[in-house]
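Work Package 4 report. The design task specified in the project plan requires that, given a folded chain encoded as structure tokens, an amino acid be chosen for each position. We show below one input record used in the internal validation round.
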């Protein structure tokens, strides 16, 4: 490209970015807060804090407050009711929330709030304590088929992606789902400690949550739920080990219901700007997250399709 054309295009891009920043800084919106409907350290919390940090580093918004609500359903209810019409708070939620709302028999689903953008996708991992006699996925499946009660799964809330993966693996192994022993906790917090204190303990969680425990030598990863191996992650997939299951977990950004169309457009512009920054791309690399950015109405359609798919999956698994 001609140098003058390049500089002209760059200047135009910066002007547009500054215009959007100026619009965002208008008093109509005010300081931004980010709700993570999960405990500190969970996948949703990690995503919320990466989003907040990315906004601050890029100079798009001063460092937003991240607010945790350990009870996902209570957090969602407050966001969809109490925060109605507010444009100064957003929520990070994903496929796990979709399932939790279904299994929890909530009166609402994610269609009750305002979709802004899908931010990331990551994959689930299955791991056991380093001292576990289950040295491989094959050993885990053999034990599971012989006596399902001797394998105790620990992960996030009932109906979430952790629970769904455990059920899908059991189903693929021919194990009756009524015999699967699953212990769910908000955000999966405490699941590693519980698994380490339990004979036959097995942890299911997003790779970004498990990886630090693997690096510390506390957990041994047995499989990851990607369709193909993830670059930089030396863990075999379920598929290559004979379990025909792959499951991805997305997380995105939502605003409360009844914000104005102008407020919705400005939030979308904000996320558009963020995901283009080098800082955000670095965070994806650090966490082994996959960029799956999708904003606006297309994201709304995606959420509706995912809710329908999750209802069908949970129904078929006998979990809803």
């Amino acid at each position: 490209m001609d140098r003058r054309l390049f500089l002209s295009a760059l200047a135009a891009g910066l002007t547009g970015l500054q215009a959007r920043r100026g619009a965002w800084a208008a008093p109509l919106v005010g300081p931004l807060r980010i709700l993570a409907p999960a405990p500190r350290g969970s996948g949703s919390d990690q995503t919320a804090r990466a989003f907040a940090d990315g906004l601050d580093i890029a100079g798009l918004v001063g460092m937003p407050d991240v607010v945790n609500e350990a009870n996902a359903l209570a957090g969602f209810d407050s966001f969809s009711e109490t925060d109605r019409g507010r444009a100064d708070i957003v929520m990070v939620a994903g496929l796990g929330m979709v399932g939790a709302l279904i299994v929890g028999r909530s009166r609402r689903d994610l269609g009750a709030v305002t979709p802004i953008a899908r931010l990331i996708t990551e994959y689930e991992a299955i791991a056991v304590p380093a001292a576990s006699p289950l040295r491989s996925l094959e050993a885990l499946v053999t034990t599971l088929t012989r006596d399902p009660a001797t394998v105790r799964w620990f992960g996030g809330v009932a109906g979430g992606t952790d629970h769904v993966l455990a059920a899908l693996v059991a189903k693929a192994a021919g194990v009756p789902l009524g015999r699967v022993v699953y212990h769910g906790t908000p955000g999966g917090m405490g699941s590693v400690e519980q698994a380490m204190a339990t004979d036959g303990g097995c942890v299911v969680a997003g790779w970004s949550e498990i990886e630090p425990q693997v690096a510390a030598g506390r957990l041994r990863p047995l499989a990851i739920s990607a369709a193909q191996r993830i670059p930089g992650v030396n863990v075999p997939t379920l598929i290559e080990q004979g379990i025909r299951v792959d499951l991805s977990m997305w997380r995105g950004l939502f605003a409360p219901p009844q914000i104005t169309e102008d407020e919705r457009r400005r939030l979308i512009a904000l996320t558009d700007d963020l995901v283009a920054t080098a800082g955000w791309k670095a965070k994806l690399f650090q966490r082994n997250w996959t960029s799956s950015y999708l904003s606006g109405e297309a994201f709304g359609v995606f959420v509706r399709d995912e809710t329908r798919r999750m209802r069908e999956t949970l129904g078929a698994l006998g979990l809803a």
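The two ends are 56 Å apart (CA to CA). Validation will be extended to a larger panel in the next phase.
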